[in-house]
Design brief:
Length: about 675
Amino acid sequence: MHIPLLHELVIIFGLAIGVLLLFHALRLPAVVGYLATGALCGPYGLGLVADVHGVEVLAEIGVVLLLFTIGMELSIRELVRLGKTVLLVGAAQVVLTIALVAGVCMALGVPFNHSVFFGFLASLSSTAIVLSLQQERAETESPQGRVALAVLIFQDLAIVPLMLAVPLLAGRAEGGVSLTSLGLKTAGMLCVVFFLARWGGPWLFRRVVRTRSRELLTLTALALCFAVGVLTEAVGLSISLGAFLAGLVVSESEYSLSALEDVLPLRNVFASLFFVSVGMLLDVGYLGAHLPSVLAATAALLLLKGLVVALLARLAGYPSRVGALSGLALCQVGEFSFVLAGAGLALGLLEPHQYQFFLAAAVLSMVATPFLINYSAAMVDRLARLPLGWAARLARREEERSDAEEDGPRDHLLIVGFGFGGRALARAARAAGIDYQVVEQNPDTVSAMRAKGEPIRHGDAGSRHVLGHAGAQHARVLAIMTPDPAGVRRIVAAAREVNPTLHILARTRFVSEIEPLAALGADEVVPEEFETSVEIFSRVLARYLVPVERILGMAAEVRAKGYRVLRGDDPMARAEGKIRADLAGVDVCAFTLEPGAPLDGKSPRAAALRKAHGVTLVAVRRDGELHANPDADFVLGPGDVAYVFGERAVLAARRDLFAAPGASPEGGADAGEKNASSPQTP
């Protein structure tokens, strides 16, 4: 039996394993390894893969699943918050890039329609590469991650009018789709998506989850993803945009994380095929023959697009550092540019040699992207330290924008980042009567929160001047709540310079950041995964009746030792391996007192409950009211639920104290409550 594509998949995955192992040893990004795999096994390399089109079909599924998972990790509410950035930065980026590239091409003697088409090709960025790399670096929630997502969303929307304009540029306007018709179809599609997100999706997922079948949950999520993708394709939009909208629908359900967990492995496999398929497009022979010109064009493209995005993000109110990071992330050519290039080649807007030149430059820009994103923070920081030039002048102007008075707050809490964690901390500080100031980079958040009366200011807290205007030199505590790892390091270093006595508490997602942040001057580093572990082991030990003071002491010791206990490199972990073995046989049980039972109308003292029977009454629930730690003269009555403490074997033997004479302890409609032998919460 012949299975199509099986031979190709075996070759691709086998070659990818070897290439990725080599790249891992050389500390090169995995994305570049996939591109190299495609170049090796593609038609311009060793020619090991014959059915390139079949691989490209599977690769498109990877892009669809990537956009689907991105949507699942967002929400419609967060997307609305991005609306301003999508319209301002995204629209301006596409239009300005097209205009600049067309202007350069026309200056070189290229006809107008061909020049505009080249602008189309350059205006799009790679959604798959940028979002996957930012997810790996946990930067999707950072300011530069939000800017990148907003621009990419608009680019996906712009694909449709760009595709419609290609025949017009080629002088073949017949058969075009009416923009009015397209607008009406798009509005109808958005109404369907809104209905699914508000009512249909949550209703469906509630019923699916009740089946307790993970396979059915995964199947439902994927079916919704592809169904909305088909719907958007039917109205003339891209399938990947439909997958993103489907992800937003799933995100409105409380079960979205469970579905996401099952979809991620599929996404990773198919996304790897996308990068391999892009590598297959590269003609290594053509690249070698035209290497200087291709490198020059690639460098010019990266520089132009990077500057455009950085400038627009700055004009939208983001700090210059965020703009620079966003520009470095979005300066490559996108995967949908290949679709446009194919259409342009068919309509005569590209000559065959121009098509190969574009493919070579586009793939090189994609290869450069992982390096640009991984080292963007270091490059921007080094540029900002230059004593002269536009970067230093721009940074000085940005720092001087703050309108803080010289006589600012003192002994206050300074919060950097006003996401969920920052807002929770601000509420706690307000409730405790602690003065606080907030520094946030998102201009929309600053405007909205300032209108609500929050003491918030806009700026990059990695700048000493911004920290100074926020009163860091007079603050008692600095709490860094931003999710950007590189940004956190910069803020810690700058804050320590501004105020050597400031107590700096930094949040991080990564365990590897604990020691570097401490070396930079952080007094406390809170890794999210370990704090979750501390909370869980505290609750588990409480169920084993370990004394509260002992639990608090262990948690404090774990934090004081920099979480080395949980990392397995501290002797305390071995010393605490066996927890309270002497309490292994004790429990708390609940019994309902029946009329005429031996304890009916008696108090613990009168019944000699502890001395004669070996159990202790710790709480009583009567008429819905809980009486915790009742005294020895508390008289028990019928219907009382008594919570008693003792050894399990003794508790089992004392069930008859609460049962009416002749009643079976296991019988009756309330047997589960009357004779509960498992721990109960009073």
